[in-house]
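All the exercises in this workshop are built on plain-text protein records. A record pairs a protein's sequence with a compact description of its fold. Read left to right, the backbone structure tokens trace the chain's path through space. Once this layout is familiar, the rest of the handout is easier to follow. Here is such a record, shown just as it appears in the course material:
>
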Amino acid sequence: MVIKVQVKPGGNRNEVIEQSDGSYIIRTTAKPVDNQANVAVIKLLAKYFQVPKTSIHIKNGASSRHKTIEIKTD
């Protein structure tokens, strides 16, 4: 499965919000420094989709707020 996400780092809570168009907004308390926000995004998505963290891969946008993420659900 491939999803589009918009990341909002440095917030006051961690949450995953599904949008009506099938994309997701991810709010995280992690700062966008030293890959901390990307690690938090992977952790939040793993919990949300109930898959191991190793099943989640950032395909595009590792240094952007708009990311394309692949989730292996096998």
